């Protein structure tokens, strides 16, 4: 499987282009002794612009080239020649990226739509040529202005995946197994905890061609909201999911009690962000192919008052019903 570094936070140093200088020049033509001023204006400097792009899914490119510059404007010249504008530097970033001014700690923009733009460093204005300073009292002005200074800004970009559905569960609960069965993603599945080290996005495509994006995040453990384990760094990726799927290992393969797992998950989410506990959700009882699962299910129902949807990510049991339910519940998909 192609492995790719997952980068969800980067520092970017953006510098716009300087404006071109205005020119102080005089017309020189045969038989025209005092031709008057003809110095053109400088071109505007290029801006550094961030633009949301639905095809982008990582900040990895910026991670490897954090210094982003735009071109300087050209200087104005004689014969009223205007300097060329400096080209903008337009950078495509994934939807769900927060753009922060790193030093001021101010949120500049939250890029959530395809094509949404923010100018993070505006190009310097072009200087004015002496042609504009001619007046009745000054027919030969030598005055012109310099181009505007470039802007420099240090940004922090933070990607929060925008999935329709977020999978949450303890390590080994079977989240990645489920993702690989219902979506087009093929995450690594293994019998040891913390197999998944980065969030993984998959797409579920339905028969009517609508689709939902589903995010698998590394397993959460108790204390995750305080930074224990791996999941804490990724909890923010579920913040934007419209819908949560709690994946519970109902067979208790790792000698845990499923009802404790469920309580632990809800607590961790609530402590991370109180609104997450109220997010629409479904509880999935996974590993129902194992005999212990049936026994545990009774107790789980009694203790939590929740009647989970029974599935087996291994045998495929219950997955068609689950897909149908997701289709129905998530309503209009976010395209
Ligand atoms: N018997 C059975 N085993 C399952 C089922 N689903 C997953 N497993 C097994 O459980 C183990 C963990 O599965 P994963 O899908 O890697 O679990 P995960 O929740 O993604 O784990 P982390 O990435 O570590 O958080 C693997 O050995 C799977 O084969 C199931 O429905 N039945
Ligand atoms: Mg996994």
Describe this structure in words.
This protein is α/β, with parallel strands linked by helices and 335 residues long. It folds into two domains: 9-159, Spo0b-associated Gtp-binding Protein, Chain: A, CATH 2.70.210; 165-329, Rossmann fold. Helix content is 17%, strand content 23%. The chain has six helices and 14 strands. The protein has helices spanning 60-64, 175-182, 235-238, 258-272, 291-304, 319-329; strands at 9-15, 48-53, 67-69, 89-94, 97-101, 106-111, 117-121, 152-159, 165-169, 200-205, 211-216, 243-249, 281-286, 309-310. A six-stranded mixed beta sheet has the order 10-11-9-12-13-14, sandwiched between helices. Strands 3-1-8-5-6 form a five-stranded mixed beta sheet. It has a three-stranded mixed beta sheet with strand order 4-2-7, with no helix packed on it. Strand 10 (200-205) and strand 11 form a beta hairpin. Helix 4 (258-272) crosses helix 5 (291-304). The radius of gyration is 29 Å and the shape is rod-shaped. The protein starts with 8 loop residues before the first strand and ends in a 6-residue tail after the last helix. The structure holds guanosine-5'-triphosphate (GTP) and magnesium ion (MG).
Highest-level CATH class of the largest domain: Alpha Beta
Q: How many structural units, i.e. domains?
A: 2
Total helical elements: 6
Return the string of H and E elements: EEHEEEEEEEHEEHEHEHEH
Low-pLDDT residue spans: none
> Can you give the mean pLDDT?
89
**Fraction of residues in β-strands:** 15-25%
User: What percentage of residues falls in helices of 4 or more residues?
Assistant: 10-25%
